[in-house]
Sequence to fold (227 residues):
Amino acid sequence: AAGVIQSPRHLIKEKRETATLKCYPIPRHDTVYWYQQGPGQDPQFLISFYEKMQSDKGSIPDRFSAQQFSDYHSELNMSSLELGDSALYFCASRGRGGPPYEQYFGPGTRLTVT
Amino acid sequence: AQSVSQHNHHVILSEAASLELGCNYSYGGTVNLFWYVQYPGQHLQLLLKYFSGDPLVKGIKGFEAEFIKSKFSFNLRKPSVQWSDTAEYFCAAYGGSQGNLIFGKGTKLSVKP
Fold:
């Protein structure tokens, strides 16, 4: 079965650079969630989108922005990167009309900021 | 708001030992609880979930969890662990209005062969 796809899987950037992470949800899923998991930390909710509109916001820094496109894929844009942004960024998707708790996680993008 | 706490940071067991990982949640309305497993270097995988009904929930790989409403607990159990169960385990609860998950801090399980 198709799963959530994230690209790139690994990304190395320098401080103050920008990064764009992409998430492709499972086909026919219309809701996307972004989570950040720092080293040795639990995943923290950043932001979510439903039908291309931002639906909820968590602990996302102002330097980050995200959007969902007409094909339901989502991009997380990160600017002025800091060392503390080094983390694993997960995307999860939820099916159309499905209960809010049925989320399927992607493999994550490991971002390293040097 | 929902919050989730996991009591054990690191648990070390020998193979065939029984496992119980604690999880407590704060009440915030509808209770939807999950256990996820994260193998080293891999993504989160759903082990089991509780929405309503039978408080004893069975998941994949021989795991089960019991929802005890009076104790606000959702502990994960497995009668006999294997070396391959070495991973980090996260308890989670449904948080926001659009279904984002709130995770506990995680429990690292190391199983000695």
User: Anything to note?
Assistant: Chain A has a mean pLDDT of 92. Chain A touches chain B at residues 31, 33, 35, 41-45, 48, 50, 55-56, 58, 90, 92, 94, 99-101, 103, 105-108 (CB under 8 Å). The radius of gyration of chain A is 13 Å.
